[in-house]
Amino acid sequence: MTDIKRPDPVTYYLPAVGTWPESHYLLDGRCQDAIRLAEASGRPLLVRGLPGTGKSDLARAAAQMFERAFVYEVVTARSEPQELLWRFDAVARLADAQAQEPRAKDVSHYIAPGPLWWSIDWRGAEQWLREHEVHAQRPDAELTDQSGQVSQQAQRAQTKGCVLLLDEIDKADSELPNSLLEVLANSGFRLPCADGYEVKARQHKPLIIITTNEDRELPAAFVRRCLVLPLAADADFKQWLIARARSHYRDPDDTSQAGDGRPAMAQTLLEQAAQRLMDDRAQLRGEAHLPGLAEYLDLLRGLDSLARNDPAQQQQWLDRVCDFAYRKSASLSA
């Protein structure tokens, strides 16, 4: 089989949004191709992989890639299918009814758009809140880039559309993904308690990225409606780690990277931290948890905070604290 020609890797700056801190992400050619096909086909992209391989931030990188608004929902075992579409504030309605408020007679005053509604029709969600005088939390309104320039999520949503991240969908039972089949197929849904009000994509279909840690098998019918991107390390795991660390930390010996806003970290330190991780993984064969990208980046982030721009001190800290980041299994406890 001939080698597949893919786009060159691109590093994207990820602005802080909600509880997500600012970061950087290396989007390789394979991931770029999968994202572009998902956008072109209108199908969700299901990203499979172990925890800590960068699945969630891939969605943020996709939003930067297309200059779209970023909407997200972290799925839990308590997540209800309806909450992804719309949310009903029964407590507020009960309080208004007890106070004999006239608005309590109309349930529309207590329905707030959920993440799928916002991503499918942001303008319509804003209009719903205004017309029905609903007091509800909106998706994070602003994104601030490295230069301090602020962009409005609403403007991005209305001109380019949204990227919706449904994170860790395998945490919920099969009822939740099964309930999304019609919504994903039609890019829309109806509100059964509001005279059949329809939510439909007016201009741009959302790019939906769904992640799974494989903790629970997903329904076959749901998977069939998705494109699937298995996100795993390359054969040379050590170099794969280092390449992704370079998206977060510039090389102090590379003058072309000076002034790009990223903290510096020496190549030798990245290599030594990666080698220590590889050594621990070798000792952990057969164990349930192996240190990976998440642990590697946690360690580097700590070294940068403990001794910024001081390679000698970072080296000393590496020897002292490495075990706390990597040795999470009882088999490797000191």
Automatic annotation (TrEMBL):
Biological classification of the source: Bacteria, Pseudomonadati, Pseudomonadota, Gammaproteobacteria, Methylococcales
UniProt protein name: AAA+ ATPase domain-containing protein
Species of provenance: Methylomonas koyamae
InterPro entries named in the record: AAA+_ATPase, AAA_16, P-loop_NTPase
Domain AAA+ ATPase: residue ranges: 41-233
SUPFAM superfamilies: P-loop containing nucleoside triphosphate hydrolases
Coiled coil: none
One Pfam family named in its UniProt record: AAA_16
